[in-house]
From TrEMBL:
NCBIfam families: GGDEF. This is Diguanylate cyclase. It comes from Quadrisphaera setariae. Residues 116-241 form the GGDEF domain. It comes from the Bacteria. Residues 414-650 form the EAL domain.
Length: 650
């Protein structure tokens, strides 16, 4: 160090006690200097120059990596609000429910304008819950991924294929007559059956009267009819090896390959890991790069990028013992093998099956130092230039990749815990419905009941259950269970019943089927959460048949006036709900009084009734009555003093 005054001065200024130092520039892919890669030692290293080729290779890779990471940060930020990310199911890579809604809306406009035929397929996988219960969610997730891939392979590029939620998929077939759609459904059933996946399927075509929403409802009903007809004619057993062996009717069977199941990860982040692998593949100059996870006795391919065909894909799992990844972790395989034919693994099964001509790999470690798996890259041809610097560069990339991988795995662990709690809800006593009376403040008469979902004592609050379920894409089944319990438990109650659902739940055919089974005129539906303009149009269309039969809508005051009252204009609710946070203290708060007084006039102008939730004192009730609020929730019948002039329910 003393031989280079600038280095000596820099070390003195930084307090670095170093006797030897190596510094090489880190360049971006465009050649711009983005930093420097430095190494220092307390000892003099006269042989340091011999290490420069490896350091430069690592710096080149780190430059590309840093450029990629910075770009990825921007991509991830954009993806949080990007339309594509919002419309993608992270598990299957297919469209999600939002993509389905958008596709239905757009295709309805085209079909109505041109009069072209359009068909809808709805599919529901058989036995998935049993598989999740017995083999775990990893196995179920893998079946969903395989089903999604098989579906996509059987339709045209212009057809929309989405995962509607849970084990249900939808296919939208533009310019398709019913006979063709039925043939497509048969082809899909056969392809899934060949993979060992049984499926119930319904087909319907658009009519001018009911549109595509009507076709969706009809296809959904046909799917349930198919499921009922096939019940008892198929089984969903698990073999001793844990392989799902469902057979579709009329197929010879065939088990789903024994795969461990790749955890679902956020789409934008997962693309980031693949992007970094592509950087590694291009930098080292190989055909294939992959990350493997070594867990238990299995090797699972987590991420794969390739420019040639390979006999595995992301999610493929197989016994770990003796694989090249296992050998690498055990230290029995060098980091770089320039020619496998001239090595100890010349006749290794992996080398032959994957056509590995040259190989470079690095062991991946978690933050706590424990082995996670491997980062490997290979070509189908020998590469005499492949050596230790490439292995060192790959190891440097592996350390960066593990930051993303561990973040993904942690997120999936949290999601798995939520799914486990949801699956175990019945064992804890299940959810139940508590009914709060809704009274007329004019005469104290009972006009209805507010259905509130209650969860087992000692567990999280209801809001936490629903928000956690929404975060892992399971809010639909939970909302459906809450609605079913409320409808069943309210059959003998007097007056109407206020129930709640999100726009996504309220627009699925199962919601219409369930609510139509009771008297819709007894129901007041409070629409929860936010909805985009297109969602509001679809919500209004989906609920129109039920509203014609007497269903009424309710909006909470905050939702009613958001975005300039867009939801009120679109949905025209019969009830406006004032949250208990506004009602609490209204007898003494000038600001709350002003707000409620304005809401009374607002609801009257709409032709709606105002419902105050949760008044807790006689003073609050008296003020609400004086202000002209017609309805109150959650008060005992004797707390509301009768007043002249009857007021009915909404």
């Amino acid at each position: 160090m003393a031989d280079v005054p600038a280095f000596a001065a820099a070390c003195a200024a930084s307090g670095l006690d170093a006797a030897s130092l190596v510094v090489v520039p880190v360049l971006s892919g465009q050649g711009a200097v983005v930093g420097a890669l430095c190494g220092a030692s307390e000892l003099a290293r006269p042989d340091l120059a011999a290490h420069l080729p490896g350091v430069r290779a690592a710096a080149d890779l780190l430059g590309l990596l840093l450029e990629q990471v910075l770009a990825l940060d921007d991509v991830v930020r954009r993806a949080e609000n990007a339309e594509a990310a919002a419309h993608t199911d992270p598990l299957t890579g297919l469209g999600n429910r939002r993509a389905w809604d958008a596709a239905l809306l757009a295709e309805e406009e085209r079909a109505a304008r041109h009069g072209t035929p359009t068909a809808v397929l709805v599919l529901d996988l058989d036995g998935l819950k049993q598989l999740n219960d017995t083999a775990g969610h990893d196995a179920g997730d893998d079946v969903l991924r395989q089903a999604g891939a098989a579906l996509r392979a059987q339709v045209r590029g212009q057809d929309a294929v989405v995962r509607l939620g849970g084990d249900e998929f939808g296919v939208l077939l533009p310019d398709t007559e019913r006979a063709v759609a039925v043939a497509v459904a048969a082809r899909v059933r056969s392809a899934l059956g060949a993979a060992g996946i049984g499926v119930s399927c319904g087909v319907a075509t658009r009519t001018g009267q009911d549109g595509l929403l009507g076709a969706w409802r009809a296809a959904d009903e046909a799917m349930y009819a198919d499921k009922r007809a096939r019940r008892g004619r198929r089984s969903a057993p698990l073999s001793s090896s844990g392989v799902w062996s469902v057979r579709a009717p009329g197929t010879a069977g065939g088990a789903v390959p024994a795969v461990g199941g790749r955890p679902p990860v956020p789409a934008a982040v997962d693309r980031g890991v693949d992007a970094l692998l592509e950087v590694a593949r291009a930098q080292v100059g190989v055909d294939v790069a992959f990350i493997s996870v070594l867990e238990g006795g299995q090797r699972r391919f987590r991420n794969v990028v390739a420019r040639v065909r390979v006999p595995f894909a992301a999610g493929t799992s197989e016994p770990r013992e003796g694989t090249v990844c296992d050998l690498l972790v055990r230290g029995r395989l060098p980091g770089a093998v320039p020619d496998t034919a001239d090595s100890a693994v010349a006749y290794h099964p992996d080398v032959r099956a994957m056509s590995i001509g040259s190989h470079v790999g690095a062991v991946l470690h978690r933050a706590d130092g424990t082995p996670y798996g491997t980062l490997c890259a290979f070509s189908q041809r020998p590469d005499p230039h492949l050596g230790a610097p490439d292995a060192e560069a790959l190891a440097a990339l592996g350390r960066a990749v593990m930051g993303l991988v561990e973040a993904e795995d942690a997120a999936e662990g949290r999601a798995r815990a939520v799914r486990s709690r949801l699956e175990g809800l019945d064992e804890q006593g299940g959810l139940r419905t508590a009914f709060q009376p809704v009274l007329s403040l004019a005469d104290g008469a009972l006009v209805g009941h507010d259905a509130e979902t209650a969860f087992p004592r000692g567990t999280a609050a209801p809001g936490a259950w629903f928000s956690e379920a929404r975060a892992v894409g399971a809010s639909g089944p939970l909302e459906a269970a809450a609605l079913a319990d409320a409808l069943d438990a309210s059959r003998d109650l007097a007056g109407w019943v206020l129930v709640r659902a999100s726009p996504a739940t309220a627009t699925i055919p199962a919601f219409a089927r369930r609510t139509a089974a009771v008297d819709p005129s007894r129901l007041v539906l409070q629409v929860l959460g936010e909805a985009e303009a297109g969602d509001l149009d679809q919500l209004r269309s989906a609920l129109a048949p039920l509203r014609r039969d007497g269903l009424r809508l309710a909006l909470e005051v905050g939702a009613a006036v958001d975005r300039g009252g867009e939801r009120v204009l679109a949905l025209e609710p019969e009830v406006v709900v004032v949250h208990r946070r506004v009602v609490a203290g209204v007898a003494t708060s000038r600001h709350r009084r002003a707000l409620v007084t304005g809401l009374v006039a607002f609801s009257e102008a709409l032709g709606a009734q105002l419902l105050a939730r949760g008044p807790t004192s006689a003073e609050e009730l008296a003020w609400l009555r004086t202000a002209g609020v017609p309805l109150a929730h959650g008060v005992a019948p004797d707390a509301a003093e009768p007043a002249p002039g009857p007021v009915g329910g909404p």
